Amino acid sequence: MAKKQIKKTSSSKLTIEHRGPSIFEVAHQVHHTVARYCSDCGRPMTPSDVNDYGSLCERCYMREYYGK
To answer: Which DSSP string do the residues of 17-59 spell out, in sequence order?
Structure first.
């Protein structure tokens, strides 16, 4: 018994548009701009640091919460 073959073709094309900053610009902003300063020692903190440690820098956070 012969199988029926169906061939699908598409005439549409995928279009990708760039809107907004590149991934490199976003990464630079997250890791290299100053979002705030540590409330204990005054060290500048990036948005990434603020997301991880709140108002304290990594060193002050570890000292405060883990006694290191």
So the answer is: ---S--HHHHHHHHHHS--EE-TTT--EE-HHHHHHHTTS-HH
